[in-house]
Amino acid sequence: MSRFWRRNRHWLTPVLFLLPGLILFGSVILAASVETIWISLHAWDGIGQKTWVGLANYLELADDPQFYVSLKNNVIWLLIFMLAPPVGLALALIVNQQIRGMRILKSLFFIPLVLATVTVGVVFGWVYDPNFGLLQLFFGVFGSTAPALLSDENFVTFAVAAAGLWPQIAFCMVLFLAGLNNLNDDLIAAGRVDGARGWRMLRHVVLPQLSQVGFIAIAVTVIGALRSFDMVAVMTNGGPYGSSTVLAYQMYEESIFSYRFGYGAAIATVLFVIMIAFIAWYLHGLVKAERSNA
Amino acid sequence: MYPRPIPENARLQRALYVGGVSLVVLLWLLPLLAVMLTSIRSNEELMAGNYWGWPQKFSMVENYTAVFEQTAMLRFFLNSLLITIPSVVGVLALSTLTGFVLSRYPFRGSNLIFALFVGGNFLPAQIMMIPVRDLMVRLGLYDTVYALIIFHIAFQTGFATLFMRNFIAALPGELFQAARAEGASPFQILRHVVVPLVRPALAALAILTFTFVWNDYFWAIVLTQSDAVKPVTAGLNNLRGEWTSAWNIVSAATIFVALPPVVMFFLMQKHFVAGLTMGAVKG
Amino acid sequence: MSSVELRKVDKHYVGYHALQVIDLKIEKGEFVVMVGPSGCGKSTLLRTIAGIETISSGQILINGRDVTREEPGDRGIAMVFQSYALYPHMTVAENMGFGLRMANRPKAEIDAAVRRAAQILRLEEQLTKRPKQLSGGQRQRVAIGRAITRSPEVFLFDEPLSNLDAALRTQMRVELSSLHAQLGSTMIYVTHDQVEAMTMADRIVVLNKGRIEQVGSPLELYANPANIFVAGFLGAPRMNFIEATVAAVDASGVSVMAAGLPTLTFGGVEASGLSAGDAVTVGIRPENLRVVDKTGADMPAFPGQVRLVEQLGRETILYLDASPLQATNSDSGTGNFTLQLNKVSTLRTGAVLEVGFEIGEAYLFGPDGRTLTPRKGIA
């Protein structure tokens, strides 16, 4: 036995090391994700027997007006979230100075990033409050009243997504700061010698060096927008009248509140497919970047 | 450096710049400051409509005491600790092992396994919600902290593996070859070479995982029900429903929930930022 | 019984043959240096002996024991890496004792071995320091000390001096040679630096494209390179090569012609398979070219114009344009001839002079690159 172990430990040990993580991740995360696709082909109340219904859930989904509301709202989230990379870059540029006190200011900018989304939700619920919120304070200055954003079907998704933007900007800012720290000083110096400055320096010398970080910031932001759930759940519960649901929230509602697990699974699968496309694009980009670095 | 550094001798310019940026920070954090301000205001004052003026009376102690005594927040807080700490420990242990193997023992299929860890990490939570909930129900773990611990360890292992693999892969390869040439077994290499060298990565990963798990809301409401196991995030949302008009109490509870990750962040800021960027940029 | 024996060692990756049927015997106590251009397989070969890399086929024996399937730690070898590979979180003493600790040896034995190695390498003062606190040369010695503490049967060195500056490199070269004399162990040393190879080796193994080109003592290889590759690889500045054609093969020898040069006749050449019209190469080392009088044409000579003069103090290197005669594969890459004078020269760029050489000091390489001229004596 010990002889066998000594001869083979150089490959057996790594296998043993890999197994716990692989089994846990595989059985809980990956297997569950695949199982959802299977469940989406059934009618199921979460307790009793599953009944095979084929693609019926998907067909129903195609005719479900709520589904299109969710889809539209996801697009709105995506568009609003696209502000995060440029604003994050701008903030990163502002704080990228070595002055006494700058470090603490920099950290203060990061705070929204470490807050729970529930916290952000509560905070912005307070901001949007039509009676005494921050927004009302601003409108009050001009002598008008703020719209009740969270109870207005036309504005609610914009308002919720804007709240979600807050931590996302901080995330992008962290990424761009790291990118700015890794700039090639020689290239910047060469740019200065060649007479580039300000905007032209940014455009021709700095941004090209930030392209990888920028790619990551965009990808992370896209995925964040598609994953949005917490803010909707905390701030509006999808309301008013289901006007602020997103796919993730609709799926949760159908499953947990309406006990339509098969239908919920179908929505999750659609979200999954959209996401897979982005993940594939993201991984492809990363592999390309890694190759070009190697 | 870009933008061009403001010269050190331009004292006034530097002071003005810091002042300007401070103003931006103030605006940036205004929503949070408003909540902080409310958390030390008395209910009477709120009723009277003094939301933004300077508090006439500081009720900080009263409000926070109320949060501890009249709500279940302390219980939720404890639950969060009971969930988060084992999750972090578990993630660190598992990902050190997987990261070590995937970076130093290439085998047929190792790239595929790595891609699964990375890809799975980006999946939306909803895609696995129903089966995971079902699994926990069947295991009898639904509505216990174990359900959340197991799920968080499993899920965070994806990101953490990516993180640890990249960190270990960036260590000089000859260190590992030298250890092998000196007769160290894989276990000895793990213990005497990998673990001492990955300490900074573990610190970064610990703070990141702590933040992710502590801040989780979705799984908290999917896998738990009762106040006895609920973490702070789910608890806070409930609280908001129950104490609708007592904004000062809700605000105090909000600050209470936000405190641990913010404190952790300021204590381990360097690790947090390094971790976040390393995880995203290199991965 | 050889200390290290390689039997038909072969290694290929997909689409790349890294080592091609290597056979080699290394005797106990020998200092063998493997040299070759980058990518020739010398490091790969060393790593297969260490067991860090596997082989596709063949056998590796150490002290007569087949270790082909054994783990590196069980082979009785110790390796010194190019980057030193010192563990940054351990002290010098811990680094040096690591291997013995892994083998669960008693603490007293580890301490004794570390102390002995530290004494040999004059590291006693540094034992409690971390690698980061040491100079490059000290780190290098710790890496060697780590190898010594394990008292291996074979020491393997993978370009250990390439990260040191020139002065330190010379010093460490001497120290390594005396260490070898002191320990008497078998040492295999990989380098791309021919000076290290020439000065340290008992025997040199010249590798090229995964194959052994020649094995022999340094002077033997220098005087009698087996082929045009070895001839060009050893020696700095490089040997001058001239493309030529066989004019005639007869009893007196082989006559070859090259534009711009009188017909050269090489005697004693093993001329089987050679016939008139074959493309051959004539090689002359730069130190064998000399400036001659135009009148004293008792040796083959050709006119040349000085393009560049490098004064090295003790010697002078001249780069000559001798068209229509062209040097191929020359150091400067220009077709210029390289001439080394062992004295200070007053010649200036543009000077025109007559260059000659003894036919007995020139080499003739066949169409396949093999050396055809007879063995030369080693001075």
UniProtKB/TrEMBL annotation, chain A:
Keyword Heme: no
Claim: Acyltransferase is one of the keywords in the record: no
InterPro entries referenced in this protein's UniProt entry, alphabetically: ABC_transporter_permease (IPR051393), MetI-like (IPR000515), MetI-like_sf (IPR035906)
Parts of the chain that traverse the membrane: 75-95, 107-128, 155-180, 201-226, 261-283
CDD domains: TM_PBP2
Family note: Belongs to the binding-protein-dependent transport system permease family.
UniProt-recorded name of the protein: Sugar ABC transporter permease
High-level lineage: Bacteria, Pseudomonadati, Pseudomonadota, Alphaproteobacteria, Hyphomicrobiales
Automatic annotation (TrEMBL), chain B:
Biological processes, Gene Ontology terms: transmembrane transport
Organism (species): Mesorhizobium tamadayense
TM region(s), chain numbering: 15-37, 76-100, 112-132, 144-168, 189-214, 246-268
Keyword S-adenosyl-L-methionine set for record: no
One Gene Ontology cellular component annotation held by this UniProt entry: plasma membrane
Location in or out of the cell: Cell inner membrane; Cell membrane
Claim: Metal-binding is one of the keywords in the record: no
Name of one Pfam family that matches: BPD_transp_1
Free-text function comment from the UniProt entry: Part of the ABC transporter complex UgpBAEC involved in sn-glycerol-3-phosphate (G3P) import. Probably responsible for the translocation of the substrate across the membrane.
Protein name (record): sn-glycerol-3-phosphate transport system permease protein UgpE
Keywords recorded for this protein, A-Z: Cell inner membrane, Cell membrane, Membrane, Transmembrane, Transmembrane helix, Transport
Family, per entry: Belongs to the binding-protein-dependent transport system permease family.
Topology versus the membrane: Multi-pass membrane protein
Superkingdom, natural source: Bacteria
SUPFAM superfamilies: MetI-like
Domain (ABC transmembrane type-1): residue spans on this chain: 77-268
Subunit details: The complex is composed of two ATP-binding proteins (UgpC), two transmembrane proteins (UgpA and UgpE) and a solute-binding protein (UgpB).
TrEMBL record, chain C:
Domain ABC transporter: 4-234
Record's bilayer topology term: Peripheral membrane protein
Main location: membrane
PROSITE patterns: ABC_TRANSPORTER_1, ABC_TRANSPORTER_2
Keywords: ATP-binding, Cell inner membrane, Cell membrane, Membrane, Nucleotide-binding, Transport
MF GO annotations: ABC-type maltose transporter activity; ATP binding; ATP hydrolysis activity
Keyword Magnesium: no
Listed GO CC annotations: ATP-binding cassette (ABC) transporter complex, substrate-binding subunit-containing; maltose transport complex
Top-level division of the source organism's lineage: Bacteria
Location in the cell: Cell inner membrane
Cross-referenced InterPro entries: AAA+_ATPase (IPR003593), ABC_transporter-like_ATP-bd (IPR003439), ABC_transporter-like_CS (IPR017871), ABC_transpr_MalK-like (IPR015855), ABC_transpr_MalK/UgpC-like (IPR047641), Mo/tungstate-bd_C_term_dom (IPR008995), NA-bd_OB-fold (IPR012340), OB_MalK-like (IPR040582)
UniProt similarity note: Belongs to the ABC transporter superfamily.
Record NCBIfam families: PRK11650.1
Protein name: ABC transporter ATP-binding protein
UniProt source species: Mesorhizobium tamadayense
Phylogenetic placement of the source organism: Bacteria, Pseudomonadati, Pseudomonadota, Alphaproteobacteria, Hyphomicrobiales
